[in-house]
Amino acid sequence: MTPDKLSNVDETTFPLNFALTPSDELRHEMEREEILADPGFGKHFTDHMVTIDWSLDQGWHDARVTPYGPISLDPAAAVLHYGQEIFEGLKAYRHADNSIWTFRPEANARRMQRSAQRLALPELSTSDFIESLRQLVAVDGDWVPSAPETSLYFRPFMIANEVFLGVRAAHRVSYMVIASPAGAYFTQGVAPVKIWLTEEYSRAGRGGAGAAKFGGNYASSLLPQVEAYENGCAQVLFLDSETGTHIDELGGMNIFFVHKNGKLVTPMLSGTILPGITRDSIITLARDRGLDVEERHISITEWQDGIDSGDITEVFACGTAAVITPIGALVGHNLHIGDADAPAGELTMSLRKELTDIQYGRSPDRHGWLTRLDA
Ligand SMILES: *Cc1c(COP(=O)(O)O)cnc(C)c1O
């Protein structure tokens, strides 16, 4: 296991100043309200975006908020050839008093710093990262929807945009943030999904970039994801690439098993899985309830045996986008574990409610996880 290296970023340097160029093509309130009434996911974007440039000689500079729109890249920009890119995902939640909050943004900032280290990209400080979200909310706050379970999804990302085909870490990089209103993930109530087990493909290997939020991990998951769809499944589950025996994670979500005594078991952070902030928050909330949480290897056999014996009572996936998704069944070429028609588990649903109640300000933020963005 690779311990998290201490970040190299210097938090004591002067904060960046953001220059604002307001859009002169703001969407009308009516059009915005129409979009917010049924935003879907990742389809609509707000009126502005944030960009901060970095170069080897100048460091981070030229922070700006500009109208949302296409970016121009030289065809030789390194990201287009070697995929040097990382991203993050977090949400803004509107509370009942109309204030706008986000959840554990310093954890996303630190994770982006670790992803940057792994992909040989520059680190953006935690305070500049959070300020970039504030800046976007200051101009596009009206895009944070207010219906239950809706949010504004932030997509911070970083690309190598140096014009150079030589293979080395780029000397020019851009960090950007775009934002997209997100509807309730489950519109018909939270329903268990079927998951496809890929036995042929891996997501990450020892020493690879599996613990980084790196576009390439997603690119290599798309083919098994097609296979999942062809088999009527919502997502794909990956095993460890070395032995092919224990469970790593889904294409974009971590996984938990609930045992009948209330114990939770989740794959340990072995360097090949993405350390989810939802995962970490669930571990904390479960331990607060006095439940045992084990982080260790789990095999497919243990899953099968646990379902057969009744020792495993619930399985769920978690991540920022869907929060917690119950898993009904695991399907493979010669495998079928569980029952996709069984209702969502009780602990699954109660942890989901506890976490979303904190995010939406309906219950006390006892861990100091919320950061206000609009004041
Ligand atoms: C982002 C992501 C997750 C979930 O992380 P959260 O911080 O909970 O949103 C899990 N797995 C992968 C591969 C991811 O990219």
Overview of the structural elements:
With 375 residues, the protein is α+β, with helices and mostly antiparallel strands. The protein has two domains: 3-182, D-amino Acid Aminotransferase, Chain A, domain 1 (2-Layer Sandwich), CATH 3.30.470.10; 193-359, Alpha-Beta Barrel (D-amino Acid Aminotransferase, Chain A, domain 2). Helices cover 25% and strands 28% of the residues. It contains nine helices and 18 strands. The chain has helices at residues 29-37, 79-82, 105-118, 126-140, 215-219, 222-230, 277-288, 300-309, 346-359; strands at residues 19-20, 48-55, 59-67, 85-87, 90-94, 100-103, 151-160, 172-182, 193-197, 235-239, 247-250, 254-259, 264-267, 293-296, 312-319, 323-332, 335-338, 370-372. Strands 1, 2, 3, 4, 5, 6, 7, 8 and 18 form a nine-stranded mixed sheet that branches. Strands 9, 10, 11, 12, 13, 14, 15, 16 and 17 form a nine-stranded mixed sheet that branches. Strand 12 (254-259) and strand 13 form a beta hairpin. The longest helix has 15 residues, at 126-140. The radius of gyration is 21 Å and the shape is globular. The chain binds pyridoxal-5'-phosphate (PLP).
Compose a concise summary of this entry.
It contains 9 helices and 18 strands. It is α+β, with helices and mostly antiparallel strands and 375 residues long.
Query: What is the radius of gyration computed over CA atoms, rounded to a whole number of angstroms?
Result: 21 Å
Distinct bound molecules:
pyridoxal-5'-phosphate
Shape: globular
Give the CATH class of the largest domain: Alpha Beta
Task: Report on the biggest sheet.
Answer: 9 strands, mixed
Average pLDDT figure: 95
Reported by name, the CATH topology of the largest domain is: D-amino Acid Aminotransferase, Chain A, domain 1
Question: How many DSSP H or I helices?
Answer: 9
Secondary structure class reads alpha+beta
CATH architecture group name of the largest domain: 2-Layer Sandwich
